[in-house]
């Protein structure tokens, strides 16, 4: 087993409520890509190792101890670790633990991309997280603490920013079937490999990209001190159709990605505190990437676009027996704000029935790359860095209406720098909005 320890030498100021989600996404994406080298401009070379199981895929352990400070957690110490090739060439195990000076804590465990014998088109992943925030920052339906129905009041779109004790838990099991065409023709494990720069790209899913169907049973709870009337639990299934036609998920230069996700909580009526309303929600997301070629200053110039649309069809359905609307809790429903959607605002700041978001980014990789020669940075493998300017416009509405979703839209403008550090994408961004601004340090591309 190869062992490597990465130390973070500076304080990181980030949104700790989002940290487990972001790191989990990156862990799922990184375990196969690390087997490949990359060019200076970030495009993958031919793989040094394929998914041939006769090759050496000995486990590799990477640990990251860190210290940072946030408004929610105060000074925090902790660590994250990932085991690549964890029992299988394409699999990984990821864990994180944090403890803060205000006695908040976060734990997360993820097991990613495992296969059962003779089921070459299937991938299984699981996630488990528990957290307790003593000074958690949340956005809840306006006047929720004075409403007997909380999220099911007649006007649930307006939100209040609160600071309170919050306990959170979620568990998910991802069961993914990769269709045997395009990059999935050679099995689900090989479909995880990034495309080569010489690979042809087609807009026919039978010839290009990875097409998959995924079902995810989930449980998610959130309990806020002083807001006991709010729904605290959701449990159900997510169904996702995904066509990933990008050349490289870490640094896409061409292609795009299409996904449609349907979430359903079937509700529960036991006459106790665990009663839940049934609800249905769907989300559609489409990205596209266009290469603008090279220049004297930049080895790579990319225009990246993303479109997000979501709705809750059961929003206005009323259950007379429970005297409640069929709506998801605010922590599980349609929302904008955070490190991926409308980055100039806090996480899930805007909540409602439906949402629309347009995003555009101009990404460049400078030919000038001094990082490997600088102290501290020269301890790590940093093959490329990227400068980004971005703009977003979106809205949340209590009706699924094109006119309402385009009325008085919220907007964000921002700049950022992104780095590949030991096969992990680290991004720093400053986002400015009309009445808010945010500074993010996170992992993974936003799309």
UniProtKB/TrEMBL annotation:
According to the record, the signal peptide region is: 1-24
Its keywords, alphabetically, are:
Signal
Signal in keyword set: yes
Q: Where is this region: Disordered?
A: 248-273
Q: Which domain of life is it from?
A: Bacteria
Q: Where is there biased composition of kind Polar residues? A: 250-262
Identify the Gene3D superfamilies for this entry: membrane protein fhac: a member of the omp85/tpsb transporter family
> What is this protein's record name?
Bacterial surface antigen (D15) domain-containing protein
């Amino acid at each position: 087993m190869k062992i490597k320890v990465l130390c973070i030498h500076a304080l990181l100021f980030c949104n700790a409520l989002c940290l487990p989600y972001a790191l989990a996404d990156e862990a799922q994406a990184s375990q196969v890509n690390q087997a490949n080298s990359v060019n200076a401009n970030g495009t993958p070379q031919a793989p040094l190792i394929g998914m041939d199981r006769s090759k050496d895929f000995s486990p590799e352990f990477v640990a990251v101890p860190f210290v940072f400070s946030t408004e929610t957690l105060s000074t925090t110490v902790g660590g994250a670790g990932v085991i690549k090739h964890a029992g299988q060439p394409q699999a990984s195990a990821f864990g994180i633990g944090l403890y803060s000076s205000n006695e908040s804590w976060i734990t997360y465990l993820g097991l990613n991309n495992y296969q059962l014998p003779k089921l070459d088109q299937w991938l299984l992943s699981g996630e488990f997280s528990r957290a307790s925030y003593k000074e958690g920052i949340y956005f809840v339906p306006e006047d929720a603490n004075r409403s007997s129905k909380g999220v099911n009041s007649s006007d649930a779109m307006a939100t209040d920013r609160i600071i309170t004790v919050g306990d959170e838990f979620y568990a998910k099991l991802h069961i993914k079937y990769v269709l045997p065409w395009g990059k999935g023709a050679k099995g689900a494990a090989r479909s995880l490999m990034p495309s080569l720069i010489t690979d042809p790209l087609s807009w026919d899913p039978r010839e290009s990209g990875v097409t998959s169907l995924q079902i995810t049973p989930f449980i998610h709870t959130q309990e806020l001190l002083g807001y006991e009337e709010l729904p605290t639990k959701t449990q159900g299934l997510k169904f996702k159709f995904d066509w990933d036609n990008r050349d490289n998920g870490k640094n896409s230069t061409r292609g795009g990605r299409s996904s449609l996700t349907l979430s359903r909580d079937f509700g529960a009526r036991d006459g106790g505190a665990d009663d839940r309303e049934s609800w249905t929600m769907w989300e559609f997301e489409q990205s596209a990437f266009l290469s603008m070629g090279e220049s004297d200053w930049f080895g790579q110039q990319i225009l990246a676009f993303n479109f997000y649309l979501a709705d809750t069809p059961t929003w206005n359905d009323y259950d007379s027996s429970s005297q409640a609307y069929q709506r998801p809790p605010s922590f599980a429903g349609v929302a904008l704000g955070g490190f991926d959607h409308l980055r100039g605002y806090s996480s899930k700041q805007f909540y409602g029935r439906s949402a629309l978001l347009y995003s555009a980014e101009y990404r460049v990789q400078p030919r000038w790359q001094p990082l490997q020669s600088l102290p501290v940075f020269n301890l790590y493998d940093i093959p490329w860095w990227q400068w980004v300017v971005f703009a977003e416009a979106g809205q949340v509405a209590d009706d699924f209406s094109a006119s309402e979703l385009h009325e008085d839209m919220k907007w964000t403008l921002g700049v950022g720098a992104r780095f590949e550090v030991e096969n992990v994408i680290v991004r720093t961004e400053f986002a400015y909005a009309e009445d808010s601004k945010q500074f993010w340090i996170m992992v993974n591309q936003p799309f």
